[in-house]
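Hello,

Following up on my earlier ticket. Below are the two sequence lines again, exactly as submitted.
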Amino acid sequence: EAQVTQNPRYLITVTGKKLTVTCSQNMNHEYMSWYRQDPGLGLRQIYYSMNVEVTDKGDVPEGYKVSRKEKRNFPLILESPSPNQTSLYFCASSLTGSHEQYFGPGTRLTVT
Amino acid sequence: QQPVQSPQAVILREGEDAVINCSSSKALYSVHWYRQKHGEAPIFLMILLKGGEQKGHDKISASFNEKKQQSSLYLTASQLSYSGTYFCGTGETSGSRLTFGEGTQLTVNP
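Thanks for your patience. The regenerated structure is below:
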């Protein structure tokens, strides 16, 4: 089954404790992206990747890091999480940026 | 820059029609439309490309006015299942990243 998986689905952590949210797709897609969703603000892009080893900042990259060492994986790293990073995070993948995006189930992160 | 969606929210009775608009300040190559149910991931509805045809399936269709940098999503004879938040995403060039609007919350009541 074609899918995008994210782990964990829910996470409660404390300020400053490094964390990684994993994202994996099994569709051989070149394009992958991370979004955060906050009430009233829609889907805001954090980082995106056009292909392996190619990543670029989206609209709200501060406080986040990503890497794309393999085509299927695109982890999101929060080196020192802060309460303003409490949000719902979605990973998405597509053949290219102009094709249908497939979204993962989301990760609800709470930073206290 | 985020595209602007209007209206922000709309409430319908089952069977009524609705139009959701998406407007950008930049020239566009593609416009995507997605629907999201509360607590779930967004689901793809359709893509419109520059120079392409108006798209549609079932009772949901969309248009793309390249000159005005605008797209509209048309929902006819709405069903309860149409309730959710609708997002447009815009791309400026072929293969470029997608930027989403803030969403339009659509509620269909019996």
